């Protein structure tokens, strides 16, 4: 997978967002989706973020995932500069425990959509799975791997249920 051209760009606003975004990257890797990881800020490196978004499709990316905390304008900044689907992950790094990031990510103006996941690591994992679902629409092998993932998730839940005698 390391030699394959990335299909998903995982962008985080700060190096401190790494631990929250790790489930996203790990899930993409587990499902054999080549990805690249970047640290770009809508506020501290706005020109770099804009250039990244504008060039993403031309480099073969098909989906962008943006994780950011505090004011969390990263997903919106990427969506404003790309026609690719953008998935936002609010990160709970501020004194408001991610509520500010959630509202900044989900409250996009009409015409600039961002799919918004839950706050934190669970949202990061779901962002990866949503990206896989998007990619699976045009790739049968990705679709097969996603269906297998879901079957295994169901089987694991049933094993846990059986363990409790339910």
What report would you give on this structure?
- The longest helix has 24 residues, at 140-163.
- Helix 1 packs parallel to helix 5.
- With 166 residues, this protein is α/β, with parallel strands linked by helices.
- The protein contains 6 helices and 5 strands, in the order βαβαβαβαβαα.
- The mean pLDDT is 95.
- A 5-stranded parallel sheet has the order 2-1-3-4-5, with helices on both faces.
Question: Concise description?
Answer:
This protein is α/β, with parallel strands linked by helices and 166 residues long.
List the helices and strands and how they pair.
Layout lengths: L7 E5 L5 H13 L4 E5 L6 H11 L6 E7 L4 H7 L5 E6 L7 H8 L8 E2 L4 H16 L3 H24 L3
Parallel strand pairs: 1-2, 1-3, 3-4, 4-5
Helix pairs in contact: 1-5, 2-3, 5-6
Name the poorly predicted regions: none
Within the largest sheet, what's the order of strands? 2-1-3-4-5
- What count of helical segments does DSSP give? 6
Say what oligomer this is: single chain
Range of strand content? 15-25%
The structural class is: alpha/beta
Largest sheet: 5 strands, parallel
* Topology as a string of helices (H) and strands (E): EHEHEHEHEHH
What's the Cα radius of gyration? 16 Å
Ends: how far apart?
Answer: 40 Å
Count of beta strands: 5
Task: Look at the structure and give the mean pLDDT.
Answer: 95
Estimate the helix proportion, in percent.
Answer: 40-55%
Give the overall shape. Answer: globular
């Amino acid at each position: 997978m390391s030699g394959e051209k990335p299909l998903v760009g995982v962008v985080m606003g700060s190096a401190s967002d790494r631990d929250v975004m790790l489930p996203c990257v790990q899930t993409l890797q587990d499902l054999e989706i080549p990805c690249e990881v970047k640290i770009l800020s809508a506020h501290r490196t706005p020109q770099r973020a804009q250039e990244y978004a504008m060039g993403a499709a031309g480099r073969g990316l098909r989906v962008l995932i943006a994780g950011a905390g505090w004011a969390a304008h990263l997903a919106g900044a990427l969506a404003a500069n790309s026609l690719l689907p953008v998935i936002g992950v609010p990160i709970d790094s501020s004194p408001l425990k991610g509520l500010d990031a959630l509202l900044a990510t989900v409250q996009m103006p009409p015409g600039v959509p961002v799919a918004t996941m839950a706050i934190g690591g669970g949202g990061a994992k779901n962002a990866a799975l949503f990206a896989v679902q998007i990619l699976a629409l045009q790739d049968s092998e990705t679709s097969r791997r996603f269906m297998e993932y879901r079957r295994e998730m169901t089987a694991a839940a049933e094993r846990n249920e059986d363990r409790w005698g339910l």
